Amino acid sequence: MTSTPAARSSAGPVPSGASDAPPPVLVETLLLRHDAAEGFAYRRLITALGRGARPDGAARRLAGLSEGDERHLVHSTSWRATDDGSIVLTYLVHPDPAPGLPATPLPDPRALACSPKAGHPSPPDLKPHHVAAHAVRHLAFLARTDPVVAAHLASPGGPRKPPGGAFDRALGGALDGLPGSAAGQLRRVQGS
Fold first, then answer.
1. What is the longest distance spanned by two Cα atoms in the chain?
2. pTM of the model
3. For the chain: N or C, fewer Cβ within 10 A?
4. Lowest mean pLDDT across 2-16, 132-146, 177-191
């Protein structure tokens, strides 16, 4: 997209020392797992997006997935800007292709991070567990609204059946118990 003179003049002055280089783009991949007794857990991997690289491919590479792997769901769930000016694209991968590696528990997938100011949408206290909780709620939303994702989740050969594992009905129940609405329609849970 090229900038028009009107767009440049309405944007205001460019800060002293500012570069014309685009901000760095990072790809964050959350590798999700679910256990009926333990609940949700995730691993978080991040890489810089190289010039000419596709974010979807970077997320798959981080997860160790081959291009032909169709057993895993890979979906972009959000983006955000960091304090240093980077842009972070977040992807969810389910199931975690390496379930034996340590993961971070996600005790409350309803935890919301919200900005207290309407004109400043970035939450000031955003933590990785908030991003992971959003990704899980996004998956619950897609399970209800996206026929491709719903079919993949419901398929005995899909993400609910890890290699050599049993069909994971507990995941379906856990997702069914989460809000299936757009982020702006969710209510904040006390203490999150």
1. 60
2. 0.79
3. N
4. 2-16
